[in-house]
Amino acid sequence: MNAIILFGAPGSGKGTQAKMLKERLRIPHVSSGDMLRERIRAGAANGDVEATMHSGALVADNLVNRLVEERLSRADAAGGFILDGYPRTVAQAEHLCRWFGLRGIEEVVIHLAVDYNIVIARLSGRRQCPLCGTLYNVVSQPPKAPGICDLDGHALVIRDDDREEVIRERLDAYQRQTRPVLEYFRSVGRPVREVEAGKVPPEEVFHEICRALELDDRTQNRR
Ligand code: ADP
Fold it and tell me: Closest residue (by CA) to atom 8 of ligand 1?
């Protein structure tokens, strides 16, 4: 089974790479951020969750743990999955490792390592289609027509949590709460693969990920 944890700072390209891996491996992409936004859209989250996300801080471990567990328990995740944005605290990582341990699931952590300045440039240039969710970047991945989604022609927006003061808070939360997760995985002997993710285009990074996972990045899965 392919249990892949994509790990990295906001703006390291986890979402982009997760989508490419999903296409390649045909396993679900489980993004805790997308699940939380979906709950807010559906009116299922309380106001605290929304306010916390808008500030750039992390939402409570027990809520995210429960959402992810429920998602990973669904039948379509039985053959593997790609985790994006989770675990983001050591407490979440401990919870997940226990959960995996009980089910005999072995994961690989892919660390998308990116220089701080690149992360800032990426996040502040990020634009999203509010309709289909596709992400663009005014510098590195611009849409064909400025400000317009290539896929559905809708006007692109700056996500609330991509505003400058929120970006700073998100990076701060990453340094304080999320980076230690990497040390946690190493300390319990889980495989952590380093991938240089500052490269462009994203296909270059994808190639490195496939190498780290010992996958042929064009044809069949060799594992
Ligand atoms: P990014 O990785 O670009 O910061 P995400 O979509 O992964 O964006 O997350 C957006 C927000 O959702 C985070 O800033 C945080 O408030 C919340 N969030 C997502 N995943 C988690 C998690 N595992 N634990 C706590 N909060 C989370």
Answer: 33
